[in-house]
Write a structure and sequence with these properties.
This protein is an alpha/beta fold and about 400 residues long. The protein has 10 helices and 24 strands. It folds into 2 domains: about 350 residues, no CATH class; about 50 residues, no CATH class. Strands 3, 4, 6, 7, 9, 10, 12, 13, 15, 16, 18, 19, 21 and 23 form a 14-stranded mixed beta sheet that branches. It is globular.
């Protein structure tokens, strides 16, 4: 691992910033790359530092664990501070750091296999300094009753968080995984550059739901990718509410015949926010299907873009891909753009792409206000209606949290 980190660091120094998307301005010498936890990893909240425990309590994380989840991993700054597996089913659910020590052969088989360290500047940086994250292995034909969850929190000024998450859902197994991300508003820029690698086996299913509410002082530059085997299903549910700058494009490589990939996302950009989000669907197997639904909202001068890729290979015959991008712009200062890249390499497959950009309907706004609602409340209802498809895909407690965030 030390050799891998050194190799990754050398690659990071060679790589340039991405040549697409928003301009990235980071002084890497100002970033704190690792902050050690004060106490040992525990499954007892009473043994967690009281300040950290209060933070997670105020975020609703502890309450959600008690009611809705089969297991949780909570990362504070650079390391996992609390982990609790409730299910008695024969799965592996631990921090990635512990997986490296306890399951070295399984770890080596999947680590840096799907997302290579030298893909871009930030995968190289993650390879050099990664810490924390979740490692999950679901054995064949195992189905959990409730989701697993990880929560990532940044409180320290100018901190970099570089978790590495690896998920393996073996043949016929099913997993629902939830990820939450928040940060306190600090004075200096913080950086979140995680990497996620997901392996979905034959006839297996995986759903990965994220609500990201970073502060506007966080740059969120992550790489998330899944490979899907024969008749497998992968679904990304991706909510981007906060951060000053986001570049995130969850991907599915539909390797097996009859495999399916879905992505439903929202990006809500307000003043000082530049959100560049979307999805990538790579069709390699026959009879594969993908669906991308992207919802973008721009307000108070925010920039909310869709950037996505659909690629259907020559051998991926009888495949179908659907892309739908809906954008709503709430004032004259805001903007939204769509950057699709669609490639179709055989004559038996189909790509459908639809993009709609609109302002708040004056007619609908007038009607709601005539019923006694204020303009602010009327806009709020229109926005919640606009993202209803996304909300329906979320677990109940996250849908409630999303409503609260949008109202704020």
């Amino acid at each position: 691992m030390r050799d891998f980190r050194i190799k990754s660091f050398q690659e990071f120094m060679r790589q340039e910033q991405p040549k697409f998307g928003p301009h990235i301005d980071i002084n890497f010498d100002d970033i704190l790359y690792y902050k050690e936890r004060e106490n040992d990893l525990t499954n007892d909240w009473n043994k967690v530092d009281s300040g950290i425990r209060d933070t997670f309590c105020n975020l609703g994380v502890i309450r959600a664990e008690e009611k809705y989840l089969d297991g949780v991993t909570n990362q504070y700054e650079s390391e996992v501070v609390y982990h609790n597996q409730k299910t008695d089913k024969d799965i592996i659910f631990t921090s990635t750091d512990e997986a490296l020590q306890k399951y070295p052969e399984l770890f080596q088989k999947y680590f840096n296999n799907l997302v290579k360290y030298n893909e871009n500047k930030y995968t190289a940086l993650n390879g050099a300094v990664w810490s924390g994250g979740s490692f999950i292995y679901i054995p064949p034909y195992t189905k959990l009753d409730r989701p697993l969850q990880s929560y990532f929190r940044i409180d320290t000024d100018a901190l970099g968080q570089f978790e590495r998450t690896i998920i393996i859902v073996d043949e016929g197994a099913e997993l629902e995984y939830i990820e939450g991300c928040t940060a306190r508003l600090n004075n200096s820029l913080s950086l979140h550059a995680g990497v996620v690698e997901i392996y979905v086996g034959k006839n297996a299913k995986c759903r990965y739901s994220t609500i990201q509410n970073w502060s506007t002082k966080v740059y969120n530059l992550v790489t998330k990718r899944a490979v899907v085997e024969e008749s497998g299903q992968m679904e990304w549910i991706d909510g981007n509410i906060g951060s000053g700058l986001t570049m995130k494009y969850p991907s599915c490589i539909l390797k097996g015949d009859n495999s399916t990939g879905n992505s439903i996302s929202i990006a809500y950009a307000k003043e000082g926010q530049r959100l560049d989000a979307g999805a990538k669907m790579i069709h390699l197997g026959k009879n594969t299907k993908s669906n991308i639904l992207s919802k973008s909202i721009a307000l108070e001068g925010g920039l909310s873009n869709y950037r996505g890729t659909v690629y259907i290979d020559t051998k991926a015959t009888n495949s179908k891909a659907t892309v739908k991008c809906d954008t709503i712009i709430l004032d004259e200062k805001s903007a939204s753009c769509t950057y699709p890249k669609n490639t179709l390499n055989n004559t038996s497959s189909v790509i459908e792409h639809e993009a709609v950009v609109s302002k708040v309907s004056g007619e609908k706004l007038f009607y709601l206000m005539s019923q006694g609602l204020s303009e602010e409340r009327a806009k709020e209802l229109l926005i919640l209606g606009f993202i209803s498809d996304f909300k329906k895909s979320l677990p109940m407690e996250y849908a409630v949290e999303l409503n609260r965030l949008l109202k704020e």
